[in-house]
Specification:
This protein has about 280 residues and is an all-alpha fold. The chain is built from 14 helices and no strands. The protein has one domain. The protein is about 65% helix and about 0% strand. About 0% of the residues have low confidence. The radius of gyration is 21 Å and the shape is globular. The protein starts with about 25 loop residues before the first helix and ends with a helix.
C-alpha cells in the first residue's frame, strides 16, 4: 500500500542566498502558525498577573480619569457636545491598542531570536502576531466603552457600520510602524528605546484629548499626514456621532499604503540577515 502524498507546502532552503523574501501565499500557508504565535503572546502577556485581562480595561480607564481632570475640567477643552469622559475614552480605546501594538512589535524580532534561529518560517509572522495580539485588549476595552455609552444614555447611530473600517486602519497603521521598527531594532538596538518617546509625542499630535476641529485650517493638510488622527476621529464619530475625519481619511489611507509598501521593502532587505544580527 503506497504512502499518501503530503499536501503540505515544501520550502527548499539553499545556501548562498542571503535575502529570503516572504510572499503573501507563504504567509497564508503559515496562518495556523500565526494563530499559535498570537495565542502564545496572549498567554505570556497575562501569565502570573493579578488582574489578568483586566489590565486592558484599567489602562484606558485610568487614562480617561486623568484626561477628564486635567483636560476636561481644568483646561476645559471642547468635546464636540458629548461628555468629556466618553469623548476621551472613545479615543483612548483605539490609541491604547495602537501604542501597545507598536511597542510590542518593535522588539518582536529581537525577542524571538531563539525561535527564528531554529526553524524557517516567514519572519513577518512575528511582528504580525505582535500587532494582532492587542486586538484582544481592544475588544475587551471596547466593552467598557459600550457600558459608558449606556451610562451617559448615548445610543449608537447607523454610522457605527463604518467602525470596522477605522479599526482596520488602526491595525494597518500599527503593522506599518512595526514593519519599520522591528527591522530597525535588528540593526540598531537603540531604535526600540526611542519608540516610547515617539509614541508619547504622537499621542499629543493626535486628537485624543481634543477634537481635530481645534487644529487651524492652514495646518489641516499637514495634520492629516498623521494616520492616527483619522483613526481616532473616525472611531469617535462612528460611536458618538461627532464630526468625522472627512478628507483626513483619504490622506490616511494613502499614508498607510505608502508606509506598508516601503516598510515591507525595508523588512525584506533585513530579513535575510535577521538570524545573524538578532
Amino acid at each position: 500500500m503506497s504512502a499518501r502524498p503530503s499536501t503540505m507546502p515544501v520550502t527548499h532552503i539553499r545556501p548562498g542566498a542571503r535575502a529570503v523574501s516572504f510572499t503573501l501565499d507563504e504567509v497564508w500557508q503559515a496562518r495556523e502558525l500565526l494563530y499559535f504565535l498570537v495565542w502564545r503572546d496572549v498567554k505570556v502577556r497575562y501569565k502570573q498577573t493579578a488582574l489578568g485581562i483586566g489590565w486592558s480595561v484599567l489602562q484606558p480607564f485610568l487614562a480617561m480619569v486623568v484626561f477628564t481632570i486635567f483636560f476636561g475640567r481644568l483646561a476645559k477643552l471642547p468635546s464636540d457636545g458629548v461628555p468629556y469622559p466618553l469623548f476621551s475614552l472613545a479615543a483612548l480605546v483605539p490609541w491604547t491598542y495602537f501604542s501597545t501594538a507598536a511597542a510590542n512589535g518593535s522588539s518582536s524580532l529581537v525577542g524571538n531570536q531563539h525561535l527564528i534561529a531554529k526553524v524557517y518560517f516567514p519572519r513577518v509572522l512575528v511582528p504580525l502576531a505582535a500587532v494582532l495580539m492587542p486586538v484582544v485588549d481592544l475588544v475587551v476595552s471596547f466593552g467598557m466603552l459600550i457600558v459608558l455609552m449606556a451610562w451617559y444614555d448615548v445610543a449608537p447611530t447607523p454610522a457605527m457600520l463604518a467602525l470596522p473600517l477605522y479599526v482596520a486602519l488602526g491595525v494597518l497603521t500599527a503593522f506599518a510602524v512595526t514593519l519599520w521598527t522591528s527591522a530597525l531594532s535588528v540593526r540598531y538596538r537603540d531604535a526600540r528605546y526611542v519608540l516610547p518617546f515617539v509614541i508619547q509625542i504622537w499621542l499629543f499630535v493626535s486628537p485624543v484629548a481634543y477634537p481635530a476641529s481645534m487644529v487651524p485650517e492652514r495646518w489641516r493638510l499637514l495634520y492629516a499626514l498623521n494616520p492616527m488622527a483619522a483613526v481616532v476621529e473616525g472611531f469617535r464619530s462612528s460611536l458618538l456621532g461627532t464630526p468625522g475625519p472627512g478628507a483626513m481619511a483619504a490622506v490616511a489611507v494613502a499614508v498607510i499604503a505608502a508606509a506598508l509598501v516601503t516598510g515591507t521593502a525595508y523588512f525584506r532587505s533585513v530579513e535575510g540577515s535577521i538570524v545573524d544580527l538578532a
